[in-house]
Design brief:
This protein is an alpha+beta fold. It is built from 8 helices and 9 strands. Helix 4 packs antiparallel against helix 5. Its main location: membrane.
Amino acid sequence: MKNETQAKVRPWRAVLLPLVAALVLAGCATAKVEAPTFEAPAQFKEQAAAAPSDGTWTRARPAEAQPRGEWWRAFNDPVLDKLIERADARNTNIQAAAARLAEARALARSADADRSPQVGVVAGGVRSAGLDRNLSPKPSTLLQAGVAASYELDLFGKLSKASEAAQLDADAREGLLQSTRLLVESETAQTYLQLRAVDAERALVRDTVEAYRDTLKLTQSRQRAGDVADLDVARVETEVASTESDALTLDRRRAELEHALAVLAGDAASDFGVNTDEWATALPTIPAGVPATVLTRRPDISAAQKSVMAAQARVGVAQTAWFPDISLTAGGGYASQDLSDLFKWSAKSWGIGALLNLPIFDGGRREAGVQSASAQLDGALANYRTQVLVAFKEVEDQLSSLRILEQQADVQSKAVTSASRATSLSDSRYRNGMVSQLDLLDARRQELANRRQALQVRSAQYQATVGLIRALGGSWDVKVAAFSSDGQRVAAR
């Protein structure tokens, strides 16, 4: 009889033991979460002519923890320093990103808590009739008080991978916070530098207005003396009015920039103001040979990488749905029909249990879950690759802009010098009656146009420099160039 019983049990063991072993091995074989990498050129295209590379390529891993530095201090402008510090502390976009990071971290802690034993105090009472073992119709009361505990065994990594995915989501949020901070800092710098450029242009235009007014007074005096015709007076009056209109346009532009700066700094536009003196902000220049691997510091690339890793972890979570959930439960306390006897030793009660849950037929729900997680992973990988490609594009854009603007600044400086000399000669000849007033006005218009163009080129250089810093994800070792108030380069330091 005993042998027959053993013979009946062995086939079940022969089936169950290999099945359990296969499930354990399958759980251990779930794909490992790995950080994606991208092939980064050792050198940017725009720098190839100045510093040829050796043709090697580098596998670069984003390093979101790497400090990005107080890059704005390279501009050597105390007003800019204070504005960016203010924006870092008060900008609402940064505050919103910080709140989303705090939420993601809380969700990560919640997911990690599922891996720990859950313990709680339970108490309750039930009054019923006909539910006891004797099926007595007489109502009775059952009071209970005690401690309950439960713990889900994570044999197949379901809980650990869910916790890992939540933590990676929090890391991605941290990268997005840093990306938002860098964006706000760069926008603050660009807006401030635009404002300084407009201030310099306003001063130039208003100086020109004063020069035209002096010319108008001289022309009116000569007209009263009969030396010039009314047409000459009308021409100068036209130049005065037209240049004053340009000055008012710049006034409006300055007000808009100041209001935008107020929003970036977290202040109301009505209570915000920027008083500026002569524009002497230094212009950092990128050194030759900055490697393409500096893109590893870009926080948006880091955030995209973490999102890919979180999607990988969620694929693993979806795959564990094919394996059973095993939970252990335990409880202990007291149970009594009388409140006065509830906490007596004779009323003690306890219990332990185990629960295994393995769905057999779910209509394809688990397979759909795996497919959905895999599709999210594909989307995250595509987004990561896009982010990398955009990063290279942005750096190359700014490098090409700086290269061309450098050439344009040199040419424009020569144009300003020539136009200034032409105005001086025309003024002297006009006073001596050798040229007409129309020639003098034309020379002044050309000089004003060239000086304004020089200021605009200078402003574009600042914008491209800040754009390059943002595209690179932070600061680098810089050299600084200095300019005069009319936008011409005067020194390097």
